[in-house]
Specification:
The protein has 247 residues and is mostly helical. The chain is 69% helix and 0% strand.
């Protein structure tokens, strides 16, 4: 179960996560120019927060391997591969540093990449979008599995939560799902209270403009949620080996 101190920390974390949504759009209400230059789009604040989240998640997954002396081979492989997946997500978010280092996109990739960038998650396939892989991973790993094992968590049987997020992390994964499900209502809410919006030539409506930015926020919340989850998993491993190391 969750101690009072943990409840206070988690409450602050979730207030902060929800506050990020209103901060993002509140900055637009105060200064649309600042928002355009520093908040939205490629290499802006939302994207870098996403990168930090996924990179932090990779670091925490690999940091868990510090306790490999008490792990089996399958567990070591699990955290090594999980960290690699998070590392790929982080690299993909900034197109592997393409705009930082200034290298071009190969012609073969330009033909199939929706944004002409050096990454995989914007490749255009007929039946499956690469971004859907991350989306389903977040749903299964962050929401479905913790809820499946909710009774174990309530009973204090915490061994499984050294591998999957504890249910207290689940709301962090639910936030981006809510943004996705209620995107029309959120677009109308943002347009009403955080405008006015200036449409770029390539955007057909204010609603589409807001929805595109909400997609960036969804990715940001994915990164922050998985970082939070893997940080808690690392802490669970650290706590579990502490008695043995103290002896």
């Amino acid at each position: 179960m969750v101690a009072k101190k943990q409840i206070a920390v988690l409450t602050a974390v979730y207030i902060g996560l929800i506050g990020l949504f209103f901060l993002y759009w509140g900055i637009h209400r105060i200064s649309p120019e600042f928002h355009m230059n520093y908040m939205q789009g490629e290499d802006r604040a939302a994207e870098w927060l996403t990168f930090i989240g996924f990179a932090g998640a990779a670091a925490m997954s690999w940091a868990t391997l510090r306790f490999r002396a008490v792990m089996g081979r399958k567990t070591i492989a699990f955290f090594a591969l999980l960290g690699l997946f998070m590392f790929v997500c982080a690299g993909e978010e900034i197109s592997w540093g393409q705009r930082i280092f200034g290298f071009g996109t190969p012609e073969a990739m330009v033909e199939v990449n929706e944004q002409n960038e050096f990454n995989l998650h914007n490749l255009s396939f007929e039946h499956l979008h690469p971004k859907d892989i991350v989306s389903w991973f977040m749903k299964i790993y962050g929401i479905i599995l913790p809820l499946v094992f909710l009774r174990r968590y309530i009973r204090g049987e915490n061994e499984i939560f050294k591998f999957i997020p504890a249910p207290v992390c689940t709301p962090a994964f639910v936030i981006p799902e809510l943004i996705n499900v209620f995107e029309d209502q959120l677009a109308a809410f943002v347009a009403r209270y955080f405008g006015p919006f200036t449409l770029p030539p390539v955007c057909p409506s204010v609603s589409v403009l807001i929805k595109r930015q909400c997609e960036e926020l969804i990715e940001m919340y994915w990164g922050l949620a998985i970082f939070m989850a893997l940080l808690m998993i690392w802490a669970a491993w650290k706590q579990s080996v502490r008695p043995a190391s103290a002896q």
